[in-house]
Amino acid sequence: MAHPSLGPHEGKELELMLQNKKELALFYTDSEVPDAFKPYLKSGRLHCKTIKYDLFLKGLDGKMYQVIHYIISQQPESKNVLRFVEVLAEIKQKGFCPNLEREVGRLLGYDDKDIEYYIQHYQNNHPNK
Q1: Residue 18 counted as domain residue
Q2: Nearest to 110 by CA among 102, 100, 99, 120
Q3: Cβ contacts of 95 within 8 Å, gap of 6 or more
Q4: 70 in Cβ contact with 32 (< 8 Å)
Q5: Are 85 and 104 contacting, i.e. CB atoms less than 8 angstroms apart?
Q6: Which domain holds residue 82?
Q7: Per residue in 52-104, pLDDT tens?
Q8: Which of 26, 37, 65, 72 is most solvent-facing, going by the fewest CB within 10 Å?
Q9: CA-CA distance, 116 to 126, in Å (whole number)?
């Protein structure tokens, strides 16, 4: 059994998607869609849904930032893409919530042990959340 990891798909998302082992991948503002995905997006083999919103970071520098999520999928507007968009909106509204994080993890194709490891890691590093 593999040790749980914070990023078990990191660097392997495209390979997993092309092998139909991963339905969705998520990239965001500070880690935009890797160039390797672009030919597959252009050809229509993969699809990208972009979600933009403004985020006010109080307590850090008090500035407004635009956050962009790139949801890469096998099928455009599939039920999982639509649910992923809903879950991201809930997280934006509520903040960190273990049940929502579990759903994100499942939608992204992570194993339960990796999801729980991530949640535990987050809670250990953000004890007031």
Answers
A1: yes
A2: 102
A3: 129
A4: yes
A5: no
A6: 13-125
A7: 887 766 656 667 778 899 999 999 989 999 999 999 999 988 989 999 999 99
A8: 65
A9: 15
